[in-house]
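As a next step, we paired sequence with structure tokens, yielding the entry below.
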Amino acid sequence: MKAKRNFLVADIAYLGMLLLLFVCILFISENPDNLQKNSIILAAVLIMVIITYFTSLTAGLVLNIVMIFGYSVYVIVSAAYRGITVDSNIYFWIFWTPCITVTAYLFARRTLSAEKENEKAQEQLQRLSGVDALTELKNMRGFEQECNVYMKISRRYNMELVLLVWQFRYQRELSQMIGEEGLQKLVVQVSQIIAACLREEDAVFMLDNDPYLWGTLLFTNAEATHIIIERVQKELEHIELKSGSGKHLLALDMRVGTARCSELVQSPFHFLEQAKKRAQYDV
């Protein structure tokens, strides 16, 4: 509802800007004798509009007052010096200048506000959908739901349940070397490799993206867990990483943490926290 209101105000402000600009064009065309002077004033007003866009409405209106006051003093002094009447064009600029500033500010701010609301809605939709948009893996919401089921099965049938988490060891430095776009492509590659190395009944999740964190739920024992970790790491070594300049090859280094489901595990998040703590000790 708020986004719709923002878009409505932005549309009205946009139409108001177009109307004011059309009126200004008519005014300037009706006064060809003052074309140069009016063009200079129009350029100054547009500069103030740009400043208002990047600062605030208050700053824009203050600049308007300063310009109108300076221009009015100039016109009055010039008219008194020449012994002529004050040019009536001054009244147009006194009213038109603040109007264009306000409408431009409303259009810019309401548009930005609507875009932010749209981004929040997209993020909320992604969380509620249970799927990560980049990797198409199940996200934290999906993990919470499925981990509860896995834990119940593990306890009912006395099956060993293991949670593996994976994360980049130096994500910030890696992002600086290969760029944000390159990092996203790498995340997709890593996701595909982890999923390909597991069985169909094993679950793979994208648990976080700042930093990126993968999680896998497996019914397996300690020996098989080490085999799976080695298999995934061996496949990850095949990924060729190049720096942004393309001159240097980079090594992909990842942390791995494991946790076993026991009677002490109280919830999926407690289970995850244990695995993340183990990953911190993977040096």
About this structure: Residues 2-128 form one domain. The mean pLDDT is 84.
